[in-house]
Design goal:
Elements: H1 2-56, E1 59-61, E2 64-79, E3 82-86, E4 95-100, E5 106-107, E6 112-116, H2 119-169, H3 180-237, E7 240-242, E8 247-248, E9 250-251, E10 265-266, E11 271-276, E12 281-288, E13 300-305, E14 313-320, E15 325-326, E16 334-342, E17 355-372, E18 377-379, E19 382-389, E20 392-397, E21 399-403, E22 407-412, E23 419-421, H4 426-430
Antiparallel strand pairs: 1-23, 2-12, 2-17, 3-11, 4-6, 4-10, 5-8, 6-7, 9-11, 12-16, 13-14, 13-17, 14-16, 15-16, 17-22, 18-19, 19-20, 21-22
Helix pairs in contact: 2-3
Length: about 425
């Protein structure tokens, strides 16, 4: 019985081994079929996703619209006509401000605006008078010494002339009466008297020239002292500045933005302030260099005065700076200055120096292809957009013109009705 069982087990074992190979082949075949179907499914899914992604890309339809670009600017009001106030030109040197009317004060005609410190001119006047007195004393001394020297020299010359005359009158030239020694001595005396006379007359001429030179030097010192006195008197007469007529005082700002103050020194002719004509005003505003593209004369502007809610003022740009410059000291930000002529002036609301905020119409196109900035892409140094044509997005090279914060004007490359992508449709495909 056991043998029979063993034989059956062996047969069953051999039968099992004979059926294993066909089963593995079948499994491999099934796996291959499933993989092929799965690959086809994945391909179809990716294709459908790609089509769905292209259909989900947001687009913008190109239509000709009005494009207006406006920039903001800040500045101050200023009078169109104003009488400048400058330091007195008749002053001989620097003037130090001792008292000053506050900025924005109402002035009456002939009212004192500025008083200058007289200390320097008073000191100069005292020194000039002392120098003048010293020069006068020197002149008296020179004249006295010259007169004394001239008198002495003339006396010596007169004495030498008398000696010469006596030597000629009492000449010992008779050999029968006088000895040889006496004749020689008489001749020597005559020659000596002549030489004394010549010397006295020569020294008298030299001393006269020296005295004249000394007097000229002293005269120069006197003129210098007179000039110092005259300058000091002119400075003392120019210690006050008065208002030429009624108005408002607007002090001048220097390159640092500061106004003159008590204690400052100014040169003759330096600007101190002005008295503006309130019947005609203009605005001086500053535009950031980055926003100044297209800024030109003749463009319209709308202004509002700070502190005056609801105030609307219109005008036109009449002047634009050629170069940008910093507006504030030690701040490197560059601005272009522009002058706006106002259409109307309201003296009750508009005062010189008041801060204003302006909106400038830099550009206004009635029919332009204005598209969102995000629809423009740059690849290989070219600007392009993706236009949807026949269900697919195609890159199109464009040329752009002016732009605003979020819009760009396209001048070439697009036509009316084009549908462009607002994001790059190739990014997800590449991913």
């Amino acid at each position: 019985m056991s043998r029979h069982l063993n034989a059956e087990e062996k047969n069953h074992h051999r039968g099992t081994e004979s059926t294993e190979t066909p089963l593995s082949v079948l499994c491999v075949s099934v796996v291959n079929r499933v993989t092929a179907r799965l690959g086809a499914f994945v391909f179809l899914a990716l294709l459908a996703a790609s089509c769905r992604q292209e259909s989900e890309v947001p687009t913008f339809r190109v239509e000709p619209v009005r494009f207006a670009r406006r920039v903001t600017a800040e500045g101050n009001l200023k009078s169109t006509k104003a009488t400048p106030l400058t330091a007195p030109t008749e002053a001989p040197g620097q003037l130090k401000i001792a008292w000053l009317v506050p900025d924005g004060s109402l002035l009456k005609k002939d009212e004192v605006i500025v008083r200058f410190d007289p200390t320097d001119f008073e000191t100069q006047l005292v020194a000039g008078r002392e120098d003048h007195d010293t020069a006068g004393n020197k002149m008296l001394k020179t004249n006295s010494e010259s007169s004394t020297t001239r008198t002495n020299l003339r006396r010596d010359a007169h004495q030498a002339s008398d000696e010469l005359l006596a030597a000629r009158q009492f000449k010992f030239d008779d050999a029968e009466i006088f000895s040889r020694y006496q004749r020689v001595e008489s001749q020597i005396d005559e020659t000596l008297a002549g030489r004394k006379k010549e010397h006295a007359e020569g020294v008298l001429g030299v001393r006269a020239k020296l005295s004249a030179a000394d007097r000229d030097l002293v005269s120069i010192e006197q003129r210098k002292a007179d000039l110092k006195i005259r300058n000091a008197e002119q400075g003392l007469h120019a210690l006050e500045m008065r208002a030429p007529y009624d108005g408002i005082l607007v002090l001048q700002h220097d390159w640092r933005g500061d106004i003159v103050r008590v204690g400052d020194s100014v040169w003759p002719g330096s600007p101190i302030g002005e008295i503006p004509d309130l019947s005609s005003m203009k605005a001086e505003v500053f535009v950031l260099e980055a926003d100044a593209a297209g800024l030109a004369v003749g463009e319209k502007a709308t202004l509002s005065v700070e502190g005056k809610p609801g105030s609307v003022i219109t005008g036109k740009i009449t002047q634009v700076d050629k170069l940008a410059r910093p507006r504030f000291p030690r701040v490197p930000v560059q601005y272009f200055g522009a002058t706006i002529t106002l259409d109307k002036t309201d003296p009750s609301m508009m005062k010189p120096g008041a801060r204003v905020r302006a909106v400038l119409d830099v550009e206004d196109r009635q029919s332009a292809f204005s598209i969102p900035r995000q629809a423009i892409f740059e690849k290989q140094g070219k600007k392009l957009v993706y236009c949807k044509r026949r269900g697919k997005f195609e890159p199109v090279v464009i040329e752009i013109g002016s732009s605003s914060a979020g819009r760009v004007v396209v001048t070439k490359g697009l036509v009316k009705g084009d549908e462009i992508a607002l994001r790059d449709p190739t990014e997800e495909k590449d991913a």
